Amino acid sequence: MLACQRLSLRPLPFSLNFVVPFIIGDYSTFDFALVRHVVSSLVGLYILISEKDVMRHLTLRNCLKAIWLAFVGYVGYFLTVTGAAIFAGPVIAPAFLGLVPIVSMVIGNQRQGSMPWRFLMLPLALVLVGLVFVNGTAFTAEGLNSVQSVWTGVPLSLAAVGLWVWFALANQAALAARPEMPSGVWSALILVGGGVLMLAFYPVGASMDLFKLPTLGFGWSAAGSLYAWGVSFALLATVGGVWAWNVASRSLPVALVAQLIVSETAFGVIGGLLVHARWPTPIEVAGVVVLIAGVVLSVRIFYDRQFASGKTLLAHE
Fold first, then answer.
1. If you average pLDDT over every residue of the chain, what do you get?
2. Cβ 248 vs Cβ 6: under 8 Å
3. Angle at which helices 262-275 and 99-112 cross, to 10°
4. What CA–CA distance (Å, rounded) separates 286 from 209?
């Protein structure tokens, strides 16, 4: 249960990805990603330096795997999510991202067989109903007012779904193959990998005018808001999120970890509503409640089954 409590800290700051394009002024999403991931990588370097016997974990294979996972689950996911928010708006984007827990749960349980399907049907139904309620206003006239290009935003949203599901499965497999790897060290390697990727991409992106820092300025007077938000997201979303996800991935099957991410959709929609300066409707509030009920029920079923299995094993002994 501790893993669930730790992971529950993740969705609120991660869901703020949906409103990033609307709070950084004239700077681009790429500027924000650069600041965020460089700061996160510095934190990761500090963790690696302060960890005892860390060198035995810094093999080429581990480093390359961590960089790949950073690309898929953090740099790639962040850029597709924020791109979806720019083109599809801060309400429709998280509505499509609601597919993440559903797809992850189905694929994860299909691959791992962690729980019989009959035990997941009711929680899955609650999650589906909650997502419909939460995202019910996304495709109304009011929700569509912020859309620049559905044909660009929707594919980016679906790409983000694919990247996160891929990351969830690949990261848990990588951790399972490295039982001796401390979660903190693995998290630090992924953080450093994200920073390395953004720094490597910067010259290319700058030549394509994707970064506005060279023209708008690096000084605090011009970029202070960008730095403040970037550092905040780095510490809350990236560092905290990587650590919480890795801890939970070692304690729970993907089918359940996937359901814990549903609150990201709820918080993302709420963030979108704040952008539009309106209160959530009663149906949206009901959706959040039903989402939480589905998550709590699924985790409760999992731990009840684990407890029952333990009692049966002790009885046989």
1. 75
2. yes
3. 170
4. 44
CA–CA separation, 280 vs 283, rounded Å? 8
Task: Specify whether the CB–CB gap between 90 and 22 falls below 8 A.
Answer: yes
Q: What is the mean pLDDT of residues 2-10?
A: 39
Task: State the Rg of the chain over Cα.
Answer: 20
Length of the chain (residues):
317
Q: Which amino acid is at 24?
A: I
Q: What is the 3-state secondary structure (H, E, C) of 181-212?
A: CCHHHHHHHHHHHHHHHHHHHHHHHHHCCCCC
Token couple for 88:
């599809």
> Are 76 and 13 within 8 A, CB to CB?
no
Q: What is the DSSP letter of 110?
A: H
Cα distance from N-terminal residue to C-terminal residue, the chain: 26
The answer to whether 200 and 137 are in contact (CB under 8 A) is no
Helix (H, G, I), strand (E, B) or coil at 227: helix
Least confident of 24-38, 86-100, 120-134, 203-217: 86-100
Rounded to an integer, the average pLDDT of 99-123 is 71
Give, in order, the Cα–Cα distances in Å from 227 to each of 31, 44, 58, 237, 314: 9, 18, 30, 15, 55
